[in-house]
Amino acid sequence: MACGTAKLDFPSDNHHQTPATTSAARVMETLVRHGLAVENNEVAEALEKALRGFQRNGEQRARQIRAGSRITAGVLQPHIPQVPRIVPTWSPTELGERVLGFYRLAADSAEDERRLPT
Predict the structure, then answer these.
(1) Which residues have a Cβ under 8 Å from the Cβ of 9 and sit 6 or more positions away?
(2) In this model, does residue 13 exceed pLDDT 60?
(3) Highest-confidence range of 14-23, 50-59, 74-83, by mean pLDDT?
(4) Residue ranges of the domains in the chain?
(5) DSSP string, 33-68
(6) Residue 109, exposed/middle/buried by CB under 10 A (0-12, 13-18, 19+)?
(7) 96 burial type by CB count under 10 A (0-12 exposed, 13-18 middle, 19+ buried)
């Protein structure tokens, strides 16, 4: 999670969640609750992207009509662009980065001790 984001793909249907995704969701909720991580909100970006696709499609259809294309149901029927699936992501807060730093130090220390001759 350091210097980036953690991505967890949660099934939309709660009946199909595995114990691993349920546990991961609980861990992320705990990190957020304690101020160690924040959820990234990508909904606005995804909706804006879908709107741009819808606009481009409408402009293309308008050009076809202005150019004298035969008006058929296919030309008039709007094509609705696919809205991307939004996968929740989280980023560590400043405090979360500091806590992760302590874990990294402990892991490095343990690795150094393991390398020492016995």
Answers:
(1) 21, 87
(2) no
(3) 50-59
(4) 20-115
(5) HTTSEEEE--HHHHHHHHHHHHHHHHHHHHHHHHTT
(6) exposed
(7) buried
Q: Tokens 């984001």 correspond to what residue?
A: 5
Q: How far apart are the first and last CA of the chain?
A: 34
Q: What does pTM read for this prediction? A: 0.45
pLDDT digits (tens, 9 = 90+) for 43-68: 778 888 888 887 887 788 788 778 87
Residue 86 in tokens: 């939004």
Taking the CB of residue 57, how many other CB atoms lie within 10 A of it?
14
Tokens of 58: 């409408």
